[in-house]
Inverse folding.
């Protein structure tokens, strides 16, 4: 008997997020301890007429690679993953971790080498290209586990309830609720699609960039669960100014605190942090990681707690996030990088504003349009 929570989440992911059809080949990937959720997803794909293929990861898999792997083994990615990226109709990734600090002792240079491996980048490029064309659908779903609860300073029962509310699984018809959110956000997207310049003002922050010719995306449960954001990609060479991020940037489970960046003509010219600055410097060495690939505004006001999990945190109502590295080709981005790293800023702080073509559209966590 499948837990009703997992059953409801699986139905939302399979039916609403990626809309599995008869004959679709669907990859379901996740940690072995998320067995019950993976089973629920497997059942729903079968019910929809699809062909599910399971890819389970083991506890300690990445740590062992970093501990014993050679440079050649670190950058290796088997062709089976490229084949899945090229041929399958849908990808479901279950996100869960038995130990969020498991990579804390890994050399930052070794970690960035693994992240920037050519075949790994090739795989993500294939996924992005097929997604932009509508040939592939994918979704990330969370598994409420002890390590995530601990990072969020919650017990597992409170965290599971938090996840339930963030995904709207506490509603009778979650898919209908996400559809309604899509309709409301579409009005904002239509307005922003006519805008040419964005300015962000806030604590130790005054930054501006062009979004002329770029598309704004209405994120409402299609690729992430939970969801709730509106995002676009700055014109690559247009970003100028400074920004200090409120929350720690989490990169491969490492915290980098009090990140401050200065941009000139689209590139980071100064980067500091009060903790983890060595990791920050290594990240910026990755090709095109010193360029802002995404700007987004969180719209999920049901998420009120910073959990140190970007799947939840970037959606938090009253925040913005900027991503260093790759942008989204389907939104017009031309920035190509091996990483896409989101970092958050609290916009509820007094004096925080977003201006669009010099008109105030957002102030202290609330929309003004």
């Amino acid at each position: 008997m499948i837990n009703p929570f997992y059953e409801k989440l699986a139905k939302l992911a399979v039916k609403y997020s990626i809309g599995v059809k008869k004959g679709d080949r669907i990859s379901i990937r996740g940690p072995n301890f998320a067995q019950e959720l993976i089973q629920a997803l497997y059942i729903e794909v079968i019910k929809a007429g699809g062909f599910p293929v399971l890819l389970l990861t083991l506890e300690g898999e990445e740590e062992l690679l970093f501990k014993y792997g050679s440079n050649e083994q670190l950058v290796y990615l088997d062709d089976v993953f490229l084949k899945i990226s090229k041929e399958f109709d849908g990808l479901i990734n279950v996100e869960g971790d038995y130990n969020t600090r498991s990579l804390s002792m890994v050399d930052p240079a070794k970690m960035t080498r693994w992240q920037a491996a050519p075949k790994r980048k090739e795989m993500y490029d294939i996924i992005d290209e097929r997604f932009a064309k509508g040939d592939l659908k994918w979704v990330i779903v969370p598994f409420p586990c002890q390590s995530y609860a601990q990072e969020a300073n919650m017990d597992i029962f409170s965290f599971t309830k938090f996840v339930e509310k963030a995904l709207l699984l506490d509603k009778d018809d979650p898919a209908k609720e996400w559809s309604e959110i899509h309709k409301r956000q579409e009005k904002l997207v239509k307005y922003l699609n006519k805008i040419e310049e964005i300015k962000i003002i806030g604590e130790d922050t005054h930054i501006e960039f062009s979004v002329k010719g770029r598309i704004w995306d209405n994120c409402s449960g299609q690729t992430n669960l939970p969801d709730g954001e509106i995002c676009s990609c700055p014109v690559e060479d247009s970003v100028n100014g400074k920004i200090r991020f409120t929350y720690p940037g989490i990169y491969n489970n490492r915290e980098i605190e009090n990140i401050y960046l200065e941009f000139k003509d689209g590139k980071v010219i100064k980067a500091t942090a009060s903790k983890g600055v060595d990791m920050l410097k290594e990240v910026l060495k990755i090709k095109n990681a010193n360029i802002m690939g995404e700007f987004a505004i969180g719209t999920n006001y049901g998420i009120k707690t910073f959990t140190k999990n970007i799947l939840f945190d970037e959606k938090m109502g009253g925040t913005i996030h900027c991503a260093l590295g790759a942008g989204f080709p389907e939104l017009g981005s031309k920035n190509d990088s091996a990483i896409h790293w989101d970092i958050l800023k609290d916009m509820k702080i007094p004096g925080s504003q977003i201006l669009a073509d010099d008109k105030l559209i957002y102030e202290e966590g609330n929309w003004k349009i």
The first strand starts at residue 25 and ends at 31. The chain has two domains: 4-143, 195-367. The domain at 4-143 is CATH 3.40.1830.10 (Thermophilic metalloprotease-like). The chain has a mean pLDDT of 95.
